[in-house]
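Recap from last week: sequence in, structure out.
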Amino acid sequence: MNANADPLEIQKFSELAHRWWDPTSEFRPLHDINPLRLEWINARAPLAGKNVIDIGCGGGILSESMARKGATVTGIDLSKKALRVADLHSLESGVPVRYKLIAAEEMAAQEAGGFDVVTCMEMLEHVPDPGGIVRAAAALAKPGGHVFFSTLNRNPKSYLHAVIGAEYVLRMLPRGTHDYDKFITPAELSQYVRSAGLQVESLRGLGYNPLTRLYSLNNDTSVNYLMACTRPL
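Predicted structure tokens:
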């Protein structure tokens, strides 16, 4: 097991892996936000013909949707069960994705500079050293390549919405899905990004309306947010 991984986090998502592609399951939020994040990525880095890697791909929701856009996609994760589900769904859907059981840091050592687009979504808040993942993502990107992250801000509002609201009140997520202490502020992520040699290009918030049950991209980064970066030429 790579040092930059929490076995309990991997176990937690592995136990739910069989429900990954059920849009009414614990993974409903991922299904609901996927069109938004996909179009946001595609608008900044058109995916057709691109070589893409999805770090922390889980069951492959984003990986497969990027492949549908015409990208050649590699999805990596440390959950064997999640990758089995991803592989099976890829076979059933006929959308080819290369899945690998490998840590981001190891993948960066093997295929440095090999990807036009690197994505790492809803994953940084689940690892012991998010800065290490950012460095690996930067290493995987080609010069001039695009790197995309999404994670959770750390402040009282995000605790209220992402933990109390989502896990206890609305029950959108299983209790214990998130550890507030591992949330990352945009300033902290920006520092990781700059230290890894990347440039921040765009920052967007992801909002949820509990009345309409709809998500939207906006300028409020106080809870969920997405960051687009580039690796300089």
